[in-house]
Amino acid sequence: MQLNVNIAGIEFKNPIMTASGTFGSGRDFTSYVDLNKLGCVVVKGVANKAWPGNPPPRIVETYGGMINAVGLQNPGIDAFCKEDIPFLKQYDTKIAVNIAGKSIEDYVEVAQRLVSEDIDLLELNISCPNVKEGGVAFGVNPSMAEKITKAVKKVANQPLIVKLSPNVTDITEIARAAENGGADALSLINTLIGTKIDIHRQKFILSTKQGGLSGPAVKPVAVRMVYQVANAVKLPVIGMGGIMTGEDVIEFMMAGASAVAVGTANLLNPAATMNILNEVKAFLSDKSIDNINDIVGIVA
Q: Which residue in 114, 126, 240, 134 sits closest to 183, CA to CA?
């Protein structure tokens, strides 16, 4: 059974990745997950300097998922390079670094800092608010999405994945803009914007009032968008959004994803990625499918 997949020239041993922000660097998961068995570890977003994140409360459970407003808390690129890359290099898995910023210059600085580091891919989080444009996310405007992709691609030494926001009218416009900017692959979806109110206290629960909705509730939206994007661009697509089981993985891949990222499931069950990988293998065996790539985009 062939599980290998290729994303932007990088060969993964299987299509199971971790979604940024749900797995850290993997350090806290080693009692539950054999990192050697993952196709790729996508680390939590890294900025040019440490970000404290938002004040609590910043996570709330909701029907079919959770809403987070963590705010990309991270120790900054220098600490990441010193501590997390050496840790991950102990394992036989690919490493993708999710990069965040508040201006194009911030993103470029992180990409430049990673040029000489032994990592495999960059993932560009264009859902960050652009402080120079009034706080509007980079990824909701096609021209801005193309501009930031082009700027980072110009200095990057690794293949560039652009992570798309679903909070747009037509995600294929953003996907084509990222492709025009030089993206090597696309990942989607990032979280949907949601909120939750405590009706007894008559207040928003999150300190920021709204945050990013993830989990099984978003999966139908994510599968639809993956299908649309896979048919709109020529780039490989990494699908994510509410993946809880091996069958979810198969659904995303049939919609057009060449690989998938497991996110919220890691927070519910730290062994989720291993269980999901085993379920994918069982499905392929049961259906006598010898090569997982044969199911990619199989639905018309």
A: 126
What was the pLDDT predicted at 135? 66
Contact 72/47 with Cβ under 8 angstroms? yes
Q: Show the beta-strand stretches assigned E in the chain.
A: 5-7, 10-12, 16-18, 40-46, 59-62, 65-68, 94-99, 121-125, 129-130, 136-137, 160-163, 185-188, 192-195, 197-198, 203-204, 210-214, 237-240, 259-262
Q: Checking phi first, is residue 261 left (phi over 0); if not, alpha (psi -120 to 50) or beta?
A: beta
Select which of 128, 162, 175, 295 is catalytic: 128
Quote the crossing angle between the two packed helices 219-230 and 171-180, to the nearest 10°: 50
Tokens read off for 48: 């040019």
128 noted as active-site residue:
yes
Residue that has been written with the tokens 């994007």 in this structure: 229
Cα→Cα distances 278→217, 241, 249, 285, Å:
23, 19, 11, 11
pTM > 0.85: yes
Q: pLDDT tens digit string along 220-236? A: 999 999 999 999 999 99
Domains of the chain: 5-51+72-191+213-295 (3.20.20.70)
pLDDT of residue 136: 74
Residues 89-119 have pLDDT tens digits of 999 999 999 999 999 999 999 999 999 999 9
47: which DSSP letter? -
With 0-12 CB in 10 A as exposed, 13-18 as middle and 19+ as buried, what is 203?
A: exposed
- Residues 6 or more apart whose CB falls under 8 angstroms from that of 17 comprise 38, 39, 40, 41, 42, 96, 238, 259, 260, 261, 262
Residue 266 pLDDT level (bands cut at 50, 70, 90): very high
